[in-house]
Design brief:
- 40% of the residues lie in helices and 21% in strands.
- By secondary structure, it is an alpha+beta fold.
- The chain has a domain of 242 residues: Nucleotidyltransferase, domain 5, CATH 3.30.420.40.
- It has a 7-stranded mixed sheet.
- Helix 2 crosses helix 4.
- It starts with a strand and ends with a helix.
Length: 514
Amino acid sequence: MDYLMAIDLGSTSLKAVIYDLDGNRIASASRPTEKTTPEGHPEWVIWEPDQIWHGAAAAAKEAMSVIDDPAWVKAVAVTGMGMDGVPIDQEGHHLYPFISWHDPRTAAQAEWWDKHIGAEKTFSIAGFPTWAITAAMRILWMKEHEPEIMKRTRKWLLIEDFLNHKLCAKIATDYSMASCMLLFDQKAQTWSDELMAASGIDRTLLPDPVQSGTVLGKITPEASALTGLSTETTVVLGGHDHICGTLPIGVYRPGTVLDIMGTWEIISTAVPSPVLDPAISAAGICMQSHVVPSMYAAWGAAVSGESLEWFRKEFGFEAQQKADKDGSVVWTHLMAWLAHTKPGASGAMFLPHISASGCPINDSKSLGAFVGVSNTVTKADMLRAVIEGLNYQFLHIIEVMESNLKCKLEKITIAGGVAQNEFWIQNKVDMLGMPMEVSEVQEATPLGCAMLAGVGVGLYRDMDEAYQRVRKSGKVYYPNKALTEQYTKLFGIYKDLYPALKNINHTLFDQFKG
């Protein structure tokens, strides 16, 4: 038997999943990811390293309990969230908790970075905005507030690298995770001497970056006792969670797109070289080294499903009552409203910036808006306008990506928790005017990580073979071309909304939210 394990370090759960080489799940288990608040700092959020390690190890051991022979699991790889790191000493012991991406304490360091290094210069090298949650800001905070700990620090390990160290006692990071440091030169795929010098961060603190799929070593006896994995099992370098998730969908070649529809909509494509122009940064698109050799992930994110949840909460009381009465899902009743609406929502349009705007318009002060509302617009029309507004936003992201990346996006695959909303998807397909497939792959991130493990130990010849083995065909939606023509005209009006409302929204933001 040849099996592969992925360990997925998420913000809510620590998950271990075992697969066969065809991508079928053999076993899985999870433990909660326990975020805590340090005493005296109610606004701070941390992860305790021991909880991360022992939680992940316990999940692995439970998953392994159904495997007759531990040696059947030939390789294990780790994936997960991107920014959170921990300092370790010469003996490999952690010296401070992980500062969670929820934690706001490094806002001052991000302001300093923008002032002294600059967002445009940083993006031209690292391909990322100067987010306060990046590892560089955490290191700068530690240098300022915990200098004695930093004097004892041998390495700063991101959360996946910490777990790999626990599994096999080796220290390394991959290119996709290194990108999250804000210190990585995307073109050279190594640490940036310029950003190191400008920030004052010591190069020796950082692990050497290498390609995802690199073999790190064997499970140590100590790790074997805790995880149930064999000391003959190989630890392979995984990568950042959302990029691993593109692999079983096939989005690792130019022209392919993964559209993850959830609370946030994350749209990712693969490009053969990093595009680090100011226009890319201005559009809120990140440029990150891929887990596949010689490829890069260009991705943008925008609040999406949250807008529908807001509508449900504020306007869906009657639908909720019906759902409670008949034991159904509230969205069954809400989506039934749309049977009596027409494309264009009776002239109503929605600007979906209720939680600011990240991509393709990067504006933290932008606000949402309904426009075109008249006395003939119904509540159902307004729900349709929300869905159409989200899909106009998607269309705008695709347009900006094609323009600035100088590419044609020819195949789009949809995944995510709300990908079963057939009206939303069909409306999106009608707007774009091209077919889209809804992936049948469940939990793409750990499966993609397992694929990296399999390639690393030679159970797959390469990623193409791995993809062909695990691929699952999904439902294909086809466009109504007559509606595409109609929506193309309305899309031009939608794009006028933001510039027309920008000054008004900024004024309102400053008065009520600033």
